Amino acid sequence: MTQLTGLLPELEIVRKDFPILERTFDGDLPLVYLDSANTSQKPQIVIDAMVDHLERHNANIARAMHHLGAEATEAFENGRDTTARFIGAPDRDEVIFTKNASEALNLVANTLAWARPSTGSGTDLSIGEGDEVVITELEHHSNIVPWQLLTERKGAKLRWFGLTDDGQLDLSNIDELINERTKVVSLAWVSNMLGTILPIAAIARRAHQVGAVVVVDASQAAPQLPIDLAAMPVEERPDFLAFTGHKTVGPTGIGVLWGRRELLEQLPPFLGGGEMIATVRMEASTYAGIPHKFEAGTPPIAEAVGLGAALEYLAHIGLDAIHAHEQAITGYALRGLQTVKGLKVLGPLDPALRGGAISFELDGVHPHDVAQVLDSRGIAVRAGHHCAKPAHARFGVQASTRMSSYLYTTPGEIDALIEGLEYTRSYFKLD
Amino acid sequence: MSQDLDALYQEIILDHYKNPHGKGLRDAFEAEVHHVNPTCGDEITLRVHVDGGTVADVSYDALGCSISQASASVLYDLVVGKPVDEAMVIQEEFLQLMQGKGTVEPDEEVLEDGIAFAGVAKFPARVKCALLSWMAWKDATARALKEED
Ligand SMILES: Cc1ncc(COP(=O)(O)O)c(C=O)c1O
Known about the structure:
Chain A is α/β, with parallel strands linked by helices. Helices cover 35% and strands 16% of the residues of chain A.
């Protein structure tokens, strides 16, 4: 196997942790899973933690006065503690469980839409006519549509950072774009299409100068970059950070919103229901403190247990090591892809500037057809707009093929991809 | 799995993809529609010209994979010049073939080159690609007929 510096030293052992990587098709065709930016595979320890919870500890939480209820509550809250440690949250109660990253982002956008002008000393979170919300052109639809809905409802204006030709954020107009009227700046940390790592610290610094709230969509960052919120200088620390469990080797059905306590306390509730209240009378209710105020109804309990196991697993391997592995594989893939005739990578070509998702075009073959031919060889990639239509439009393409690696990806799998692409070219009879 | 691949990418489909028939938007039309496949972003703008109960022209501009492009080309061959009623029957037949999960035996008399899409019906993710232009055509034709009366 090709030796690259930076690969996880125990890659073969790591791979054994993921049972699905043993899958074959048609008897002997091994799975080459290069769609981890879409969803990551799950290690046995996550599967076992969830099964064990369901087999031995299942009960509803907080409201059951029996042994199992206490165990389930503890398991669920342990998931929160692990999550808080994983992102270096200054306070574990600032971690809210949602359904996914999309719901986390919608929670922020909706509660901001409902926030009343502040009367006291806190930040004025209300948004009205003349106010501005700033996003970027490379966002996932989940970090575009909620802000469109918010600004449409409130008569505010949605603005965005453009992109340079090499897929970086165009910062040339940052001081004009983020100005006294800006109330919210929301951006991805790592792009799911171009792979670009965004300069969130510099942008947060500017946004905080004008008193804007900073929301970071860390859906693609949390799986592969070390995150330590508490260690960030306050001016550079986001006010909200969202990610989704299924991309960090955890289960689907659970997402995370971290928010600064003061803001979470000030914002109105999102969904109403059980668990989020202090007391309910027919006339009116009072609400629980954070995090429960934002967790109406029975939460994803087994999923929180699974997520806890997942984040512990990643932390055990070490995010620095995972990041180094991703960079090594991404660099290797970028070099390989560029040897394929007619192939154009969208986004930065320097692995140090990007995450592990690489979108590309293959001249003469539509992305669906590329993905279909690769699938016939057991290679799983994504084709389409990857929920980032505006970013595709920026580069004048309607769709692309995307390969995305993770901690279990081997150089051999990248070789298989490159061979598969050569085969695709010959299948479609390109010279 | 490459046998499946050959069943999907029949020679006829690849030929239509490389040399699509009737492509480009033309001026005579009563209705124009724009359809997209939201999951993958494939798009088609399609115009229908109906003259005295006959499909006089179908012109289109499309972005998408080989399956969706080839299917628009086959659609053009099959419906242009036919009475609208007859063309609707062909559309229905194609729809049934595509929704048949590979169990429907296509009738070459009716579907001509369209029988090449029988293999596509076994790939659920690609059925929508094959149907994009046909659904757009049905929609545009219904509108064109409304225009007429
Ligand atoms: C950057 C980014 N933001 C948000 C999301 C949405 O995640 P989810 O679908 O789990 O809500 C994704 C993943 O699809 C993503 O890549």
